[in-house]
Amino acid sequence: MASSTKFSLLLFFFACSLFIQGTLAEVICENLPMNLCAFAIASSGKRCVLEKTKNARGEIGFTCKTSEVVVERLSGYLETDQCVNGCGLHREFIGLSSDVFISSEFTAHLCSPACFQNCPNIVDLYLNLAAGEGVSLPILCQNQKENHRAMLTILSNDGARGPVAAPLAAPTPTSF
User: Where is the signal peptide (predicted)?
Assistant: First the structure.
């Protein structure tokens, strides 16, 4: 009796696993709507990218394409709105440029605990982008935190310091 119960239970779990596998959809970049494309990873492990297209009438549109960039650990992943917003990004993201690291506002969003500790896909993307430019994202984030702390220290000491007086210039001789 006990063995028949175990067998039934095992058969039930096997049937459930087949059902769950059948209900999980494969992520294919070309099938994603525009509002889910940016920061998605296909089931193949390749990043999805939003590309601008022009049709025969010259109208501009957008399509989701599969890039050649492979992500090792996150295949079949759709980024959450919480991460996109928390990292200071938007879904209509087209292209990728290291110029974003110049913006202290962007770096503050990316390096914030809400993003850096909770959004591994976005952090991985920008970690690789920074590394391609010879920059360490963790060091960039550390510098951003230290600069922020220094600014808070200055501002908390009775506000920002006043203007520094220039040394008085020596009088110039005048001729009469």
Answer: 1-25
